[in-house]
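Dear colleague,

Thank you for sharing your sequence with our group. We've completed the structure prediction you requested, and as agreed, I am returning the results in plain text so they can be pasted directly into your records. Please verify that the sequence below matches your submission; if there's any discrepancy, let me know and we will rerun it promptly.
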Amino acid sequence: MIKRGTISPRQVFFILIMLLTGIYILILPRHMVTMVGTDGWLVLLVGGLVSSLMLFFINRISRKFPGKTVVEFAPVVMGPFLGKILGGILVVYYTFLAAVSLRIFAEMLKSVLLSDTPRWVVVLALVALITWIVQNGLEDIARFTELLAPIILLLLIAALLGDLRYMEAIRLRPMFQTEPFSLLEGFISSLSYFGIIIVLLMLYPYVNAPKKLTITSLLALAFAVIITMGFFMGTVATFGIYETGRMAWPVIELVKMVRVGEFLERVESLFLSVWLSIAFINVSVLAFCSVSGWTQLINAENYRKLTYPIMPLPLILKSLAQRFIGCLRLIQVEFYLWFRYYANNTAFHICS
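Please find the predicted structure tokens below.
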């Protein structure tokens, strides 16, 4: 079995910030302005506040079952049948998140650094590297994160502060003009963005001082909310909502404008290195949660033996991820249009 009690609350703090800062931060401003315009900061803030309640609940229930992950204590809470189903759903969810993150990681790595390398070579190399680090255990991932995370956070903050002279507060107006249904859609999107905190259900038993995790995890969430809101507001204050909505990678365009005197330019190359480090940490943590979850779900004795048959699963899901995301997006849009049509008709009948 996987060794327990191998990481510290401080390492969990940095892991959660890297996960919550997110592999999607490059497109987050564009995604938000297309849904809620300048009110993106508001839905991010509300999504963070609701996620803090979820985080508090996760800490409370995990402390009631010390030394057990959600896959192990779910059958105790819900019964063997429903508990196994819930555990299986969460494990598949972790695997799918790892697949989506791997896809984005591989695409960006190929387009930025390895444009002439076949895509399958890039993907196989990443899977081999992640398999190796997952087999070494969560402790190695946590140490790697603890080493890089402070540097990454300083560079993220520096990249944001470097464009202050281009930002104008007037571009953040008008505020509070978004329709309620659009705000609801944006809130659900932000909640799903911060919903990755459920990985704590898998990491909790491996922490050597779990009593400190409530404050530590809440601080990590607060820090991540501030960073994501900062990049959203900074991008909109620099380019406006219309330009931000048309950009493929608005955060990269923001970082391109950073200049340090006349000798340091092309800071986006350094920022992309930072982002690739975040992506690698994200995929590694999610892959570990997936492998350890499958191990506990089938009651295997050694997770290392299962690493080889389980790690190809993200490869299979990676090819299906884009279609699946497209289907979910289509369902979301159809539901939104239906809900809006129904609400408008109901309002019309009430008024008449």
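Summary note from our side: The chain has one domain: 9-341.

Kind regards,
the structure core
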